[in-house]
Automatic annotation (TrEMBL):
Organism classification: Bacteria, Pseudomonadati, Pseudomonadota, Gammaproteobacteria, Vibrionales
Coiled-coil intervals, chain numbering: none
Family classification: Belongs to the arylamine N-acetyltransferase family.
Record flagged with keyword Translocase: no
GO MF entries: N-hydroxyarylamine O-acetyltransferase activity
EC id: 2.3.1.118
Pfam families: Acetyltransf_2
Keywords in alphabetical order: Acyltransferase, Transferase
InterPro entries: Arylamine_N-AcTrfase, Papain-like_cys_pep_sf
Protein name: Arylamine N-acetyltransferase
Length: 280
């Protein structure tokens, strides 16, 4: 598997020299074409981070992956095309400021005097286009608006515009990181018993006009005009969703396992909470 195959899957031609037009197209098409998911984590499959293995998993087999996988091959591709890239690690906050490890990989790209945040591995909240660090107003990327703001201690945070105010997705700094640092964050993310991806089923795909996102038993389809939520209450529904909506090649038996182990318990807990609230 080569970068040529990667570009062919995205129907992209390498630019004569690095430019913002290609960067925008690349990000949008990668996020639309390759799903974000942690299914391999939940199945306890090996998750090597070498480029050849990732190209096979994400590009050739279409199995998707999460940030340490998606953003690794994006980083390698852009670097091979002459883009000035920088590996960065971040702390995922989701608007809850607390001490957490650096478990998110992203890329910074220097281009034509501007620094851009390039992230193709943050699931349903991922910006589908580059976000300029020096523009301190919301920048449109698909259905969403984002901006990067500087805070204390030489840190930055990616902020998403919500109707009820700014929503901090993650924080990062300008320290020098290596693939060894990624290996540590990757190990925590798919092996630590308290890690989010070890305890929840998460699948998403984004286009410029819609967001498709599954979190355990809740599937949300968001468009410009509405959000529609569907409850996944059987392994058959899960199988249909993963194969038809997300285009994943997955066996029904695996969907039965995922449903029984991760979806059904969250569904039962949600129903119990609703029942308890009704009695209150």
């Amino acid at each position: 598997m080569t970068f040529d195959n990667y570009l062919q899957k995205l129907e992209l031609t390498p630019p004569a020299q690095p430019d913002i037009v290609f960067l925008r197209r690349f990000m949008a098409r990668h996020i639309e074409r390759f799903t974000f998911n942690n299914i391999a984590v939940l199945l306890n499959e090996p998750l090597p981070l070498d480029t050849e293995s990732l190209l096979d998993k994400i590009v050739q087999r279409g199995a998707g992956g999460y940030c340490f996988e998606h953003n690794r091959i994006a980083y390698e591709l852009l670097s091979s095309l002459g883009y000035s890239t920088r590996l960065v690690l971040g702390r995922v906050l989701n608007n809850n400021i607390r001490p957490v490890p650096r478990t998110h990989r992203l890329t910074l790209v220097e281009l034509e005097g501007e620094t851009y945040l390039v992230d193709v591995g943050f699931g349903g909240s991922c910006p589908i286009g580059p976000i300029a660090l020096n523009i301190q107003v919301p920048q449109q990327a698909g259905l969403d608006q984002f901006w990067v703001r500087a805070i204390d201690n030489d840190e930055y945070e990616l902020v998403q515009h919500h109707v009820d105010g700014p929503f901090i997705l993650y924080r990062f700094d300008m320290a020098q990181y290596t693939e060894a640092d990624c290996a540590m964050g990757h190990f925590y993310s798919h092996k630590h018993p308290d890690a989010v991806f070890v305890n929840n089923l998460v699948v998403s795909r984004k286009t410029p006009t819609e967001v498709l996102m599954l979190t355990n038993h809740r599937f949300t389809h968001r468009t410009e005009n509405q959000d529609v939520e569907t409850i996944i209450d059987s392994s058959d529904r899960l199988f249909t969703l993963l194969t038809q909506t997300f285009g994943l090649c997955i066996e029904h038996e695996i969907c039965e396992f995922l449903f029984e182990r991760y979806v059904a318990p969250k569904l039962a807990a949600s129903e119990l909470q609703i029942t308890s609230s009704g009695r209150g």
